[in-house]
Amino acid sequence: MYPQFDVFGITLYSFGLGLSLSFLAFFFLLYRLSLKLGINTQFFLGNALFFFLSSFLFSRFFYIIAEWRDLQFIFSEGIIRFFLMSDYNFSLIGGIFGFLFVLFIAVWWRGFSLPKYIDATVIAFLGAASVGFVGAFFGGQVLGAPTDLSIGVEYTSPYSANPYADPVIPLGLLYALFSFLLFSLLYIVRSVVSIDGIVGYFGMITFSAAYIAGEQFSGREDIVASYTGASLGQIGFLILIIFAVWWLARLSRRESSLIG
User: What's the whole-model pTM score?
Assistant: First the structure.
């Protein structure tokens, strides 16, 4: 598609632009949802640097694990190489785990209840993901396997990361559409659901399940998948599903005890 384009003589990169816009959209939505849910806006905005650094480090580290066959010697090139890798080498599940790591610590440190913050985080993530996946689609970072279906798209640019000459499934675009629809639904539903956490954990389960299913059509296999049959991303999202189901069961027991 269009991994890069020029605007007034300035070269812009689709994925880099999409990633930047999604990051800004994420924190803007966190701010709006904080106002909506009664969360101190400084909880997220005041810790933005810690969220960013943790997400970056986890994302980069998870990517290196997944692509260990190609990157096993990266640390021998110096620690700077870890931070200055090119081609936007990031792992989505790594970034999510990095953000949640700081979130859990911040919530525990302040003695807050986690579910309300999960609601805000998941809904904001879905809104931002719909932007980021569009950038990944145009940039060729999130691709499906080659296909003969009419929905297949070709990446003819010499700057594309697509290794296939044939049309491929537009997985990034499908993720973007799904994320936007789920974001819209959960944003509306959260306005009428009074129990903190239900919407967030449901969204976590739904998106995770969709991503696990979508990765079956990615046409790529990382080192983890070569040994387990499931990619690092799929395993990570399965952990999120288990975590969310456990919390929903916990919330259900709590609400049952209050009714009883």
Answer: 0.88
